[in-house]
Amino acid sequence: METAGAPTGRLGLCVLFALLVRARTCDLSQAFSNFELYNMIRLGVHLSPSSTVWIQPRKFDYTDFTFSPPSVSVSLREERLLVKVQFPCAVSRRCSLEQCCPISELIHPWTTVTVCSTISDSHCQSRTVWTQEVVTYVDFSSLAPGQKYCVRANFSYPTFSMAASAKSSPQCVETVSRWGKKAKQPYFKPS
Fold first, then answer.
1. In tens digits, what is the pLDDT along the chain, a chain of 191 residues?
2. What are the Interferon/interleukin receptor domain coordinates in residue numbering (predicted)?
3. Whole-number Cα distances in Å, 10 to 37, 85, 155, 180
């Protein structure tokens, strides 16, 4: 088998295993070092040393991509909220099985962080940033004192904006009121 950027052995073992167990799918992610190569895959079967039968190219679209959600942690300093977004591990031949390679090392995703007040659904702020690091930090200001805010984040594949992760679990924090007391607010999950 011949591929651009994929070692023949790994790809061949994957296909051989799929044939032996009569599987309809084969995870090719370990064979490619460049995530962009998923956009076009064309496999061929060597019938003899001089004859190869190529399958028709298959163009992948956003429905072929699934991502786990990122995780978020929040810290509050006065009326500023700092959100730390960590990305899930990705399968890649550049990583050993014991090592975590965050998805942001393989692609540079768009990361959207949303902060909502638990008092009003209409009081939400969102920021979308292009991520080029393993961890992303997003800063929010103009938070009202004495309110509880919940944060969620997700990321999307740059070429296919509809290929997005699920939203992270919410992380909530309460700002200090002007009188130095925390307000009691119901728990809220931003959508």
1. 344 444 444 455 555 545 444 555 555 555 555 545 544 555 666 677 788 777 665 555 555 566 789 999 999 887 789 999 999 887 655 666 667 778 787 778 899 999 999 887 778 999 999 988 889 999 998 888 888 999 999 998 777 667 788 899 999 999 887 665 554 443 334 44
2. 67-175
3. 15, 33, 29, 61
In a domain? residue 189? no
Instruction: Classify 24 as helix, strand or coil.
Output: coil
Q: Which token pair is 168?
A: 């992270």
Domain that holds residue 23: 8-60
Q: Same structural domain for residues 76 and 170?
A: yes
Number of domains in the chain: 2
What's the whole-model pTM score? 0.62
